[in-house]
Amino acid sequence: MENILIIGAAGQIGSELTLALRKEYGDEHVYATDIRQAPRDIVEGGPFQILDVMDDKRLIHFVIRHKITQIYHLAAVLSGNAERIPIQAWQINMSSLMNILDLAKEVEEIKKVFWPSSIAVFGQTTPQIATPQLTVMEPNTVYGISKLAGERWVEYYNRRYKLDVRSIRYPGLISYKTEAGGGTTDYAVEIYYDAVKNNSYECFLKEDTELPMLFMPDAIKATIDLMHADPAKLTVKSSYSIGAISFSPKDVAKEIRKHKPNFEIIYKPDFRQAIADSWPKSIDASVAEHDWGFKPTFDLAKMTEIMLQEIESKTIKK
Ligand code: AKB
Description:
three-stranded mixed β-sheet, alpha/beta, binds 2-amino-3-ketobutyric acid, Rossmann fold, UDP-galactose 4-epimerase, domain 1
């Protein structure tokens, strides 16, 4: 029997992954935690507790009391926010990961850990088109530096302590359930909300800034597939590159106009432009495809249709 701990269950990935894992393992076996209140379906659909991943003493009690066997550590300060509080962001991102890795090494019952990395591990010197799994990595954002350091630690714990830690380098994630917070790819979520609310959007990136993205249902499936994969087939012990759709703000605006012909967009790039410019435009996911069958299904057109529909129906219900 598996007992799963989710850290960061109120966040963009956590709020959807928790529900998917509860479906699979049973509501009562998936313990959702966060430092803030989570959406209603998370709180009411199974165990939920306010828990700070930085509080290692409470964390270990929690893990032992609930006989946790798998941890998904999703909490992090994202790229845009991390540039505002660099030292604090580094401390939060690194200490929380080290707490989890060390805990998982010590507690024998914990069999698997998941930790998300990001395309932010790449930098200006990385080839930007079809960025390979293994390539130059010189990130110049605090978030990217913390994710790259995290990847090295994940590989270290895998090899040195035989701890089964699995990881994905997520591209920008797009979802309608919980809004992202503090990232550079967030424009691709905000644009849909503002299209529904105001029929217009002020974009903080330039119109032709192309970035790799993934629709949340594909991201959730990828995460679960990786966690189920045969360990003998996993050749990457740090983090797997994945990415499905590459587009720019101009491309999304064009797609939105197919549904809302009067939609307007203006461009006012801010400090996040430099972050986006240092990231890949597209990702070569062939290693993830080969090792554990990564196969995204949504393209920009299908995703746009669903995003607009779902946000509209949320807005009407309110
Ligand atoms: C961000 O923009 O910071 C994140 C990421 C790509 O990791 N969405």
